[in-house]
């Protein structure tokens, strides 16, 4: 009886946490060896690759092994859906500050959602042992106000 009192509320919470509330934007992420590809599925022809900036090319305000040449730009105070897959081996798209960790598996499309309530930069890395250079697959999300995001997406 005690186990039932523990199990039923837990199952209800798991179901509610997995529910996706009408996302404003869908971002598709594809893990490659040793970079990420991104597609803004709701907009035409907006896709790019994101590589780690080599140590030789870093500016003074960049983080070694964490900064990328193309950041993900997303609006704050918006529900974001992310679809993650991989092209070659298992990768794991992880942003600890957002509480997001989702595996990208070849042939599968995994989805999760998150909500950013403040502007700023959010850093993460591949956290799966997908090969010798998996630690060189950083992720950077730049959260900006919605009106700036609309201006950016129009350009």
UniProtKB/TrEMBL annotation:
**Does rRNA-binding appear among the keywords?**
no
Q: How does it sit in the membrane?
A: Multi-pass membrane protein
InterPro entries, alphabetically? CcO_II, CcO_II-like_C, CcO_II_C, Copper_CuA, Cupredoxin, Cyt_c_oxidase_su2_TM_dom, Cyt_c_oxidase_su2_TM_sf
Q: Which reaction does it catalyse?
A: 4 Fe(II)-[cytochrome c] + O2 + 8 H(+)(in) = 4 Fe(III)-[cytochrome c] + 2 H2O + 4 H(+)(out)
Compartment annotation = Mitochondrion inner membrane
Q: Does the keyword Nucleotide-binding belong to this entry?
A: no
Q: Which cofactor does it need?
A: Cu cation
Q: Which Pfam families match?
A: COX2
- Quaternary structure and partners: Component of the cytochrome c oxidase (complex IV, CIV), a multisubunit enzyme composed of a catalytic core of 3 subunits and several supernumerary subunits. The complex exists as a monomer or a dimer and forms supercomplexes (SCs) in the inner mitochondrial membrane with ubiquinol-cytochrome c oxidoreductase (cytochrome b-c1 complex, complex III, CIII).
Task: Give the family from UniProt.
Answer: Belongs to the cytochrome c oxidase subunit 2 family.
Q: What is this protein called?
A: Cytochrome c oxidase subunit 2
What species was this sequence derived from? Teleopsis dalmanni (Malaysian stalk-eyed fly)
In the UniProt record, the gene name given for this protein reads: COII
């Amino acid at each position: 009886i005690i186990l039932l009192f523990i199990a039923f509320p837990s199952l209800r919470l798991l179901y509610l946490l997995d529910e996706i509330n009408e996302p404003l934007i869908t971002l598709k992420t594809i893990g490659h060896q040793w970079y990420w590809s991104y597609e803004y599925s709701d907009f035409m022809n907006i896709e790019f690759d994101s590589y780690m900036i080599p140590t030789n090319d870093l500016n003074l305000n960049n983080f070694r092994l964490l900064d990328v040449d193309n950041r993900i730009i997303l609006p704050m105070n918006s529900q974001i859906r992310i679809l993650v897959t991989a092209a070659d081996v298992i990768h794991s798209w992880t942003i600890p500050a957002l509480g997001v960790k989702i595996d990208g598996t070849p042939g599968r499309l995994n989805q999760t959602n998150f909500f950013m309530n403040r502007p700023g930069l959010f850093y993460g890395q591949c956290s799966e042992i997908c090969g010798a250079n998996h630690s060189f697959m950083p992720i950077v999300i730049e959260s900006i106000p919605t009106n700036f995001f609309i201006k950016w997406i129009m350009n």
